[in-house]
C-alpha cells in the first residue's frame, strides 16, 4: 500500500521531541506524552515514520490507534485504521489485523481502500496456514476472504495476488487430504485411505495432487482386490497425466497383476472417466 513520504520539516519537528523525548523513543515513552496536544496528521506522520524505520511495527500501530481514539470519524482516523491493519499484519498480530480490517470494512464499505482492507483480512488468515497443523479452519477462512477480493474487487490491484493465493490455499487443502490418506494407506487402512484420495479427485481435481491421488487409488484398490476400480483409476491417470511419474508407477503396479489401465465396471471412478473423455472434468 502506498504511503505518503514524511517531509523533512515534519520529520525534524517530530524527531526534535514533538512526540517523543530522546533519541529513538518507544511506546512507553510515547504513552507519557500528551498526544492530544498534537494534530491527527502529526501523530499519523509519526506512525508512518515508526513503520518505515522501526523494527517494531507495534510502535507504529500505537500511534495509528491513538488517532482513532483522539480524532474519531476524521479523515485521518480512516487512514489510520487501515494502517493499523497493515501494521498489525506486519507485526504478525493476525487477530488484531483482522479486527482493524473488519472495522474499516464495516465503517467505510465504499472507500477506495476497502479492497485493500479485504485483502489484508484474507491475508491474515492465509499467512497462518502453515501454522495450523491438521486444523484447516483458517485455510477455509483464507479461501473465503480471498474469494471476496476476487469477486467483489475484480479490477483492484489485489485481485491477481488473491487469485494466486487462492490457488495455493486450495492446493494446501488437497495436500492435507493426501497427507492423511497416505497415513491410512501406510497402515493398511485402505478404505479410509480411499475416502481421502477420492475427495482429492472429486473436489480438488485442479490441484497438483490429483495425479498422486489417482496412483494411490490404484494401489489401495489393488490391495483390496477391487481390480475394476484399480484399472479405472489407472485409465484416468493415463488419459490426463500420462507423462507423470505417478502414471508410470501405477502402470507398473497394474502390469504386475496382469492388468491394464482401462476403464472397467461401474463405479464413481467410471463416472469420472466418462466425464474426462467428454472433456467436462478438467
Automatic annotation (TrEMBL):
Belongs to the BamD family. Residues 39-233 form the Outer membrane lipoprotein BamD-like domain. Transmembrane segments: none annotated. InterPro entries: BamD (IPR017689), BamD-like (IPR039565), TPR-like_helical_dom_sf (IPR011990). Pfam families: YfiO. Part of the outer membrane protein assembly complex, which is involved in assembly and insertion of beta-barrel proteins into the outer membrane. This is Outer membrane protein assembly factor BamD. It is found in: Cell outer membrane. Part of the Bam complex. GO terms for biological process: Gram-negative-bacterium-type cell outer membrane assembly; protein insertion into membrane. It is a lipid-anchor. The lineage of its organism: Bacteria, Pseudomonadati, Pseudomonadota, Alphaproteobacteria, Rhodobacterales.
